């Protein structure tokens, strides 16, 4: 019998009942399951390597929390396999693998028997005197501002995650119309680019934030990152693109994209985001690379 560690990020509702349903579905499918609430019990950190795979029941931030434990202990060489049960708001990682929240978790569990392991690159970055990683993307411009804005808003009155994503898109539209463009110097492998941009995103997967598709051609295991640039002159066109998404109208945008394995970025803009976290760095400079096949996912 295969053994799994279930890491659950409890949400509103009957937590104990939902916990029981998750365990029941996993055990019914023939797995031995050990449950941990990732917010209430730190013991899960000791149970990542002694099982066949780890089940992450939560959103993108929950996946990042698991990988952060591996990264901080420098245990990325001890590869674990993760299976995702999407229960967050955006679930960009799950959607990258076509694992949809609308599908019942029982169906996701039953699919594991015929699932395949998918290799996944990680972005690695250095800034100031620190090292970090990203799974979705890191960048400057409108998205750090959006994250900072949304962190200040109480969304408890919104009925569902669709309304939260809609609100995020509306705030993004406002930010695009008003945000300051900054000057950047980008060294991408052996080439140099320079310009004034509203958005500079280094993407590891196709979408980011409120399911906004910035790099539809991004590959998960090719050793490259997609650098998406929106210059100041495209402010109105990008705002129109977001407005059409808000109103569920047909739209497209021709994103300027570079592909590179190693990047160095200099800017006077010190505000960045790493995945879904906003932060300020001391000098605005980043060094970015790729750790090829750093993770495995069961899909």
From TrEMBL:
Lineage top rank: taxon: Bacteria
Molecular function terms, GO-annotated: kinase activity
Entries under Gene3D superfamilies matching the protein: 2.60.200.40, Probable inorganic polyphosphate/atp-NAD kinase, domain 1
KW NAD (keyword) present: no
Domain DAGKc: residue ranges: 1-129
Stored SUPFAM superfamilies: NAD kinase/diacylglycerol kinase-like (SSF111331)
Keywords, comma-separated and alphabetical: ATP-binding, Kinase, Nucleotide-binding, Transferase
PANTHER family: SPHINGOSINE KINASE, SPHINGOSINE KINASE RELATED PROTEIN
Name of the protein described by the UniProt record: NAD(+)/NADH kinase
Organism: Sphingobacterium micropteri
